[in-house]
Amino acid sequence: MAAVNVGASVQSAEFGFLTDESVRKLSVVRIINNNLVDITGRPVCGGLYDPSLGPYHDETCKTCGRGSHHCPGHYGHIDLLMPVYNPLLFKFLHNLLQRICFTCHRLRIEGSRVEMGVKKLELISRGDIAGARRLDESLSSEVAPNLGDEVMSSHECGSSSGHPLEQQQQWTPLQFTEAMKVLRTLLRPPLVERCGNCGAACPRITSPSFGLFCMDGMSSADISANVSPEYSEQRNMFSRNLLPSEVKNHIELFWEKEVQFCSYLGDIQQRGFGNKKAGSSMFFLQVVLVPPIKFRPPTRGGESVRDHPQTVSLNKVLQSNIELLAAYLEKEHSKVVDKWWELQQSINVFFDS
């Protein structure tokens, strides 16, 4: 067999977050059965060893018709009944929620600071690192308070869309480093109790456990000021656990209100790689990608078979999802929350496996 120069054949690599739609397009089968094999030891259809995912042992792949040595492997997917938090971005999401006003759905800091940060990111994305740094110098010296507008106008003739990566396909390491500095400046100021834009009191968002958010820390007076008298039944919403579906609604509204800032936020999270930009959905998972069997092969020893740790973790995800559906059909809210929490924990374990 002739040697292949891999370095010469690979042109580029892109990194990013798959959307639910992208996962379903990659998938060849939906996994719904938590049984792995039947009583005869053969893979169960719709299970984690479904023949469509590739050969389980010495069989022929149901998808491509090749044997175990030549089948590249095929992906499946699990549809989750409720969204869960993306473990890779949970800490960042927590930091973001602590800086968002749940009333006007903008960053709690003054709008002028956000606007200045967006101007810096605009310059950085175009490669003008020096111009972005001059904005800081102009603010500190107060010599040219409108320098940001002047610098922006000097670039407007080159682009009308204002897309972060219109001029180039990906950010350089220097651009990424400078962009992260701007992001830290905007998202790491001292926590404020009132929004700098609408003046509403802001709840405190805590994370008592990885994968769980709680909203508390508001006085009765602050709650009364934020909620209209005719909607007094909503007052309890300011002191309770937050499910991903609720957090997702807040993040989507934030993405609509802070469009420019969030467009750069998505680029920074995937370091400017790729043409498809990460949106607010990157913080949540509604569909789980199931790797091919060849990447999580069972270990055989004599008559015994031991499943791969990823298969064990995925089976726990599947089982938790099934139990969540049962609780949902029973219409018991407390039980639904408990089963969702089990699902979130199983997702966390799967990402660590």
Give a structural overview.
- One of its GO terms (molecular function) is DNA-directed RNA polymerase activity.
- This is DNA-directed RNA polymerase.
- Pfam families: RNA_pol_Rpb1_1.
- It comes from Turnera subulata.
- The chain is an alpha+beta fold.
- It has 2 domains: 14-87 and 286-315 and 323-334, DNA Excision Repair, Uvrb, Chain A; 88-201 and 246-282, no CATH class.
- The protein has 12 helices and 8 strands.
- A hairpin with a 2-residue loop joins strand 7 (299-301) and strand 8 (304-306).
- Helix 4 crosses helix 6, helix 9 crosses helix 10 (259-269) and helix 11 runs antiparallel to helix 12 (333-352).
- It is flat.
- It starts with 5 loop residues before the first helix and ends with a helix.
- Residues 142-168 and 226-237 have low confidence and may be disordered.
Tags for this entry?
353 residues; alpha+beta; DNA Excision Repair, Uvrb, Chain A; 2 domains; three-stranded mixed β-sheet; three-stranded antiparallel β-sheet; 12 helices; flat; DNA-directed RNA polymerase; EC 2.7.7.6; RNA_pol_Rpb1_1; transferase
Give me the Rg, rounded. 25 Å
- SSE succession: HHEEHHHHHEEHEHHEEEHH
> Could you describe the largest sheet, including whether it forms a barrel?
3 strands, mixed
Strand content: 5-15%
Count of runs of 4 or more consecutive helical residues: 12
- Count the strands? 8
Strand order of the largest sheet: 1-2-6
Principal-axes geometry comes out as flat
Q: Kindly state the mean pLDDT as a whole number?
A: 82
How far is the N terminus from the C terminus? 35 Å
Give the tally of structural domains. 2
Query: Unreliable stretches, pLDDT < 50, 5 or more residues?
Result: 142-168, 226-237
Structural class: alpha+beta
Helix content: 40-55%
